[in-house]
């Protein structure tokens, strides 16, 4: 390409030069006496070189040659930092490929075959998108690249601690075996992350990316968030970051109001695999999210016009629980899997640390053993020749042959207004609600006779026995008990999560606002919590009698 001379006689103006360089050239041309040795040109060139060096330093934080791209069916092509890739390429993380996100749901919904592996990638991607958006839009927050990386790692590793069949393990199996246990998979995620780093000697890579022990503490706190919805400046429980950075704890696992990237991914992914519509657009929320100081604490707030989108988000959560997660057949299948694991627990042992054999229920304290616990435990039990596992094998065989526990029906509690004054429900604790819903006259009391509609003249005429059987077969009069109490809510028990959310108006983006439900729509839910009692029969003799 020939060099084009400009009309002012400057010999260094090339048509291929960048706009930034041309801008500098223009400034030089407007300076009297401009030539190749002019001091102003030298100063401008040095300034441009300094800016280029700073840009190169930023780019060196993520070398494009070491990024790995994943083609995700939900989010499209996503790119992950090299340190994240190093974490992914470990056996501790790869075990997530063999843990179904929806547990026993795959036995009911053929499309629910997705695993914790792809969900974790998605959460990491969304966490990065969210925090980087805040970093760009609010430079005054001074969010560092190291903090961005920590949040991405937390999103990636937040589910490392899930056991076989996801929430079935920590929500049903462990409480059944270890009565009174408060163990949750978040604690196991923290333990597994530490084991992953130590076992694969990854700490030098953390240090290479300028991460410190304090940053690792920050990551662990993001995963197992110690915050409560009512924390204040007087009781800040975190060690990884000071209270001035409290908004960073609201991205991966938001304990304040439940609006976080974990939900955004599983809403989109689960709805896609289940064939259920998802109406929430996380990109819209991110565009309008803003950090504002509220009562001395920095919080993630949103534009007032996005409030209806948040109600739709929590409605999507409720819909997924009602239609899929707590579908009557899903809960029966998961109950049978839980019973099978309980029957196998004493006899199916796993190699743990230092060669010690541990039970499945004991693996939560031994990450060497826990690494081996995935959904494949079912196949291992089925293929075992140990006679002590016959009961567990029988239960698992029944699931395969669709010989499930018999679902009898479900009942709604009598309306709260019949026993309480309006508004009293919101003043009850969770324990009081549990007691209320098992009192006589609310759910059918234990021992109430259940009679099939085949004998309508004998059906008790009272509201406390409004069961609908699954078929019209004559069922002999029998005594039943409520096998399961299922809760549906918006994620915060009886509370409306939007009440814990602050918004801002276009006219004053730095002033936090509360928006009452009545200001949004008169068609929103009046209550945000519901319980139903489900009845099922597990007795083989009963199955033979009907």
Task: Describe the protein in words.
The model is unreliable at 1-41, 54-61, 414-430, 436-481 and 541-546 (pLDDT under 50). The protein has four domains: 1-51, no CATH class; 73-326, Hypothetical protein af1432, CATH 1.10.3210; 331-400, no CATH class; 406-490 and 525-545, no CATH class. By secondary structure, the chain is of the alpha+beta class. It is globular. It has 20 helices and 13 strands.
Q: Roughly what percent helix? A: 40-55%
Could you give the distance between the termini? Answer: 90 Å
Overall 3D geometry? globular
What is the name of the CATH class of the largest domain? Answer: Mainly Alpha
Helix/strand/pairing class, anyone? alpha+beta
Instruction: Write down the domain tally.
Output: 4
Full CATH superfamily name of the largest domain: Hypothetical protein af1432
Architecture of the largest domain, according to CATH? Orthogonal Bundle
Total beta strands: 13
At the fold tier of CATH, the topology name of the largest domain is Hypothetical protein af1432
Low-pLDDT stretches: 1-41, 54-61, 414-430, 436-481, 541-546
**Number of H- or I-type helical stretches:** 20
